[in-house]
Amino acid sequence: MTGVGYGDAYPITTGGRVAIVLGAVFGGLAFISLMTSEFLDSLKGTKQEHAVLSAMDSLKWERTVRAFAAAWGLHNSKPNQRNKLSRRVTKAAHQFKRCRKRPPMHAGKASHALQINGLPDLVSNQVESWRVSRQVESNAVLDSLEHQVHKLENSLQALLH
Predict the structure, then answer these.
(1) CB atoms within 10 A of CB 94
(2) 45-96 tens-digit pLDDT
(3) The model scores a pTM over 0.85
(4) Record's SUPFAM superfamilies (predicted)?
């Protein structure tokens, strides 16, 4: 290593060769450390990017804390209250799912009503009729499901006794 690449002048003594090898090692380390430092500095974001990331982290932690609080509240609730809360959550999830699957309002009826009654009446009438029909449908489905579950519970109790 100490005799390659120097041309006509190269170290002859052992001490000179050791000095050249050590210089090459330390020089290489210095070069690699400078390159690594510059590369890592180029990866650092701006203050705005850091602000966005910290805001996202705080939102994530806030959601986690809310989930823990809800789990703790459910754990501390009484069994009857827990069943009632579970049923309410299931009903709300079912209503949301059914609402998502519904087709959008028809444009023809909406534009006709807009010309006659105006926008506030249109919106309130459409929303109210939609809410009532969804509530009736959801309650009917949930009642039938609760009835089926009750029948299953009774049949299981009859089998166990």
Answers:
(1) 15
(2) 888 888 888 999 999 999 999 889 888 887 787 777 777 777 888 888 888 7
(3) no
(4) Voltage-gated potassium channels (SSF81324)
Dist CA 7 CA 28 (whole Å): 21
User: Is residue 59 left, alpha or beta, with left meaning phi > 0 and alpha meaning psi from -120 to 50?
Assistant: alpha
- Around Cβ 74, how many Cβ atoms within 10 Å? 13
In the chain, the amino acid numbered 114 is L
**Domain extents in the chain:** 78-161
Phi, psi of 118 (to 5 degrees): 100, 165
Terminal-residue alpha carbon distance, the chain? 91
Residue with tokens 């966005």: 52
Question: Over the Cα atoms of the chain, what is R_g?
Answer: 37
